[in-house]
Amino acid sequence: MNLTKRILIAMAAAIVLGVIVNLTASEGSGFHQFINDYLINGLLLIVGKAFVAGLKVMVVPLVFVSLVCGTASLNDTSRLGRYSVKTIGLYLGTTAVALAIAVTAALIIQPGAGIEKTTELAFQGKEATPFAQVIIDMFPTNPIQAMADGKMLQIILFAILLGFSISHSGEPGRRVANTFNDWNEVVLKLVAVIMHFAPYGVFALLFNTVAKEGFSEIVALGAYFFTVIGVLLVHALVVYPALLSVMAGVNPLTFLKKVRGVQTFAFSTASSGATIPVTLRTAEERLGVKNSLASFTVPLGATINMDGTAIMQGVATVFIAQMYGVDLGLMGILTVIATATLASVGTAGVPSAGLVMLSMVLTQVNLPVEAIALIMGVDRLLDMTRTAVNVTGDLAVTTTVAKWEGVLDEATFNDPKAGELEADDESSVKSS
How distant, in Å, are the alpha carbons of 160, 174, 329 from that of 165? Predict the structure, then answer.
């Protein structure tokens, strides 16, 4: 059985057992105390946190080394400029489409109609970072500090500059490039080792979430919850396949089958940043995108491509406006779309960061930030789902740009077995 199937089985088992525990372990009972002390806050907490830590520890070295190798291998350095323009353009374009669909669906369904507002709501908002400061913060003053802080845009820029310098330094550059290529092989092998523990990590993370959260909050906010879920599914299963079919000319069903593993990782971790190692491996080995492109588009997408987050912000803004009886009007709706598009670019790829950035969107249309507290109860499950959509978008855009630039190996893309981690591979890794 390959790794993807084992992950899906672990995911299904975690959801079923989590629901059973949530419904049967009544507050204060001995069973509830045992589950809470020894599983949720004990063994499974350790397994889940250790798995996420293993993924996160690989993000910076993988992105840095891979991007240096990719940039250094570019014979035509003007390609990097084309990569940047096309990738960023598609990322922003899909985000705007996601927001338009989200706002339209919310206006039609009206999830906030009939919801009573309360004066007891509380949420600590966050001031938006000025756009000029966002641009300034992209430039590293200390690359080592940027790596320690995980500032992905600074790491990307430094890696590109270093790779460009290596490719233009003659023989010394070739020696350094060979060293980075060796490091790249070692880092990718380490990623493969960590991925073999994925079924256990996915089970632990999902079981803990479902067992603690349950579905009581979903019932109370059902219209909002299912509106967001519906738009997320439409974006993932309609918009991205249409992009791949019309603009890249590849089979979207093949794409969706190959990205299931990444979606599961993203769903369980609720962090597109932590999923970068899996996303990058899938782009190169499962979809056939050359490293020179994937090493740039994937980490950039995890930083600025937040279609799922934008969908939540669009629906949540309309939901809150309806709850308070505020008519946004055409200008208000356009403001929501523009502001949420920019906010999604500035949203960190970590769990629930979208809620913090939602405060900026609400402020722009004069809605109370405190109302965010109302939707926090269901946001964890929505956060997991929209993260899966985010990484799907990263790979869809990466595949599309790769086809445009002629760096997509279509034989690998069309091979259903390409890049799969089989049980035999796991045994060989363990024995080595």
Answer: 9, 11, 51
What are the structure tokens assigned to 55, written together? 């993924």
State the amino acid at position 404 in one-letter form.
Answer: W
Prediction pTM value: 0.78
- 244 exposure class (CB count in 10 Å sphere: 0-12, 13-18, 19+): buried
Helix (H, G, I), strand (E, B) or coil at 74: coil
Q: Could you report the per-residue pLDDT of 377-423, keeping only the tens digit for each?
A: 677 788 889 889 999 999 999 999 999 999 999 999 998 888 776 54
Expressed in angstroms, the distance from the first to the final Cα of the chain is 20
Among 240-244, 327-331, 378-382, 420-424, the minimum mean pLDDT is found in 420-424
Lookup result for tokens 């994925």: 198
Q: What percent of the chain has pLDDT over 90?
A: 22
Q: Which of 264, 255, 334, 266 is nearest to 306 (CA)?
A: 266
Structure tokens at 417: 């077995």
Helix (H, G, I), strand (E, B) or coil at 379: helix
Residues 6+ apart with CB under 8 A from 25: 31, 32, 35, 36, 211
